[in-house]
Amino acid sequence: MTPKSVIEKPPVRPSKLYELIAGEANGFIYLRKLDGKLVYVSPSVERILGFSPTQFVGNFAAHLATESAINDAAVASWKKGLNNAVPGMVLPSFFLEFITKDERRTIHEVFERVVAQGKNEPAVIGISVDVSEQYRALEELKRGNQELAVIRHTQSHLLGVNDRDQLFSAALVAALTMLEFENGAVFELDLVRRTAVLVSSRGVDDATKESLANFPLPEQLIDQSFGVGIRTNAILLPPGHSWLQPLSPLGSSVAGLILVCQNVPVAVVAASCARTFTRETGRLFQLIGSLVSHSIENAYLHHELEKLSITDPETGLFNRTYISILLNHEDQLIKRYTKSASLVFIAVENADGSQIGVSNSAISTTAAILRACTRSTDLVARFRDTMFLVYLPETGYQGTRSMIQRCITEVHRISAAEGLTLNLLVGAASSEHGEHSVPAMLEAAENDLKPIDAP
Prior knowledge:
Structural class: alpha+beta
């Protein structure tokens, strides 16, 4: 411990003016040798940090915050500033983070000047000013600006994208561009098969891609017990997390994100850190993941909204509005290129021939039969409450009769197996028979409606 006499009578005592400046500025004065050893500190240190001058000088290092990026940078600045130091030289200012006696973290800005000690031996006099409030306000502003830059950059990759794989890749691109990652990969989660499947990667060689093609999922992900109240967000997995063990081929320090949409984990974004993974990097990485998760949810909702706008909610078939749009387009093709096409109406009625109060089971069963008996290129729609329409492009009369026969066979099979009686009317029209427009075929098919044979 430094003797009290040295503290009270330093070789070069700071002027009273410096003492007043430090007191008014919420700081303290100190004197140190070029090797960093403190030889004096002003009494105001007790008011600022809670330690007496004797306590502070005797164990200076103990009052500095540990694991502090601020102090790491200060030490580098301190050493750099002392190269070729001569009296009168003003050293670069820097910041120090102290722990007060009541265990608060405070940030000081330090201003130093080289002075001549006894026998012209240089020493350093400094003023340490508490700037915690201002520093944190500036850091918050800096973080806000960085956050805004990350948001803008990520959204530029997400704008107008509705494809899930492209959205997954956007998360990886944004992370590698904006943060200190050197490579990475995105995996889509298959909860049924309990695996993660590689979707895309950046900066990864072919051998690593092959080793990461798929890997088993942790049980917590499969049963979705990884978090409470998480609807749509991103869960950060810092380097060293056990779930990231299969991704070690990416690098020695891999961080990950689980993208969660509507309470379901849908993807893992993993990236290898080029430098030490910091809390700030994790915060911004998670922000990118959250933006992408919400974009995936928006894409899903957009798809569902689009689906609702073109389909019948009871049967899942196209609705009349949408089929009319499609038929208008097909009508132009028929007229321009004289393409062959056919159109079939199927109506459901009660045993007494009425179409009022037809059961929901009869409607849904008929819809299922039409889906099973048509091709992927055919257009099937619920045209009216009890009437369905099938449009068969590039199909003549013979092909249309074959489709109708398949439907009749399926009706007979269901009637025998389930005891459900379906009373159906069928009418067909084809461009081969002179109806060279969709409106003409619609009219001809409806006029052709007649009951199918009983089983």
